[in-house]
Amino acid sequence: MDLYLPIAGLSVNILVIIGLGGLVGVLSGMFGVGGGFLTTPLMIFYGIPPAVAVASSAPQITGASVSGVLAHGGRDGVDYHMGAVLVAGGAVGSLIGGFLFRLLQDVGQIDTVVTVMYVVMLGGIGIVMARDAIGALMTQWRGEPPRSSSRRHHPLIAVLPFRWRFYRSGLYISPLAPLLLGFATGVMTVLMGVGGGFILVPAMIYILGMSARVVVGTSLFQILFVTAATTLVHAMTTQKVDLVLTGLLLIGSVTGAQFGARFAMKIKPEYLRLILAFIVLVVAIRMLLGLTWRPPEIFTVQPL
Amino acid sequence: MRKLLLFLLAPLLVSAESPRLVPDVSQRKIEIIYSFTGAELLLFGAILYPGGRAPSDGAQIAVVVKGPAEPVLIREKRKIAGMWINTDSADFRSVPSFYALASSKPIASIVDPRTAVIYELGIDNLQLSPASGGDPAEDQRFETGLIDLKRRGGYYSETDRGVEISEGVLYRARIAIPARVPVGSYTAETFLIEKGRVIAAATRQIEIHKSGMEAFVARAAERHSFIYGLTAVLLSLVLGWAASAAFRRLRE
Fold first, then answer.
1. Chain B, 188-247: which have a CB under 8 Å from a chain A CB?
2. Taking the model in full, what pTM does it have?
């Protein structure tokens, strides 16, 4: 079953793309990440031009996060106050990201920079998450009571001025910290074609110290708005959003997300985090190897 | 005086005497619709010999399908500090987006090298117009890289014995157009070759364009980019919401 993609300019197998969307949907439902860190590289691997892959994965992530936001919002799992601060940072970040994207494209280093970013961020976060999840599991197996963390959030966060109260997150911190976090994910959404959930979720837990109940919902809330804004930015600047490709991915991912959300309820959160850490590390290692192996193509062509 | 006049007119008289080509293509228009997975073009025609002269055995045919030319930038990766990074680059002003050659015998054996360069017969004879004005050896390296990429991508091809000539008069060739080709005006050129020279040539235009839903989407993305972007966002919101609503219904 082949279908021609009007913007990408090639025909693809429908089932492969829907399956890809489904896989990513399961992940997003389970972990509250958009899954862009998997879709974008996989689509490029399948032969879709990188610019189209990055631009078309943004609305796909929007769609995948809708059901999550609704579900979490329904049981008070979204801190809208915190979400608004994150979105504001994300909007600024996506504009700056668009500027950076063009700059790096002109000097021809966009691929290398993006890959290095993937390796550093995924690698770092994967290690932190794996260590934390394994530590938590070890204490459980030994039958010790779970160690309560001595500090809520990173000491640097407490230094920042103008503290606000975020009731649902259970925090009294400066809005500058989530603003910066939102900004960083906004830049990443544009550059890497990811929602930024894999950065947001761990950062909310380990750096901001938000209460676990609202972490996933709030991260999805921010991702929803920032990817929607990014879609518009891409549609108007690069014009590489392929509606047919997005539609196919969405069909897969919205259904996948439902299954993912159900799996998530059956699995202990520690195991969940360990699985996510494993996936993140595998992607990071693959990308690191990709940088050092002799690439299949020494030459790359870019239309002027 | 008379001799001189005859001598001056000789080329004209000869050309009037030389064979003519009557080419055609199976499709003047290729429409890309949702199920497009590539097309096969049939290039066929007849060689007309003036005055009913017997067809010559030495005549060979070459057909070339060429896509619109575009300027490109090509970058080369090198290993720096253990990582493969883009380093050097070169511009080429006119790179055909598609080039397929089919000939009745291997092209190098039927045309002399000069003719091959003049008529751009053969992938190695394409004039890509390097724009960097640098070292010719370097341009050559980039050109080789570019051609290799295009060839492996299926954009450039050469088929020896891809043209069948029957009775020395009728010829036909099949050329496959892959699904990834860019849209635009293509040319299908037919060359009649004798003794290493091109003695007749004819050109036909082929339009490849998107049609139906594909064309509508592509045009909307280009002309109404804001509304297009908004549609993409709305589509994703609606699909996401519908899925969660449907599943909630199912659960109850």
1. 210, 213-215, 217-218, 221-222, 225-226, 228-233, 235-237, 239-244, 247
2. 0.74
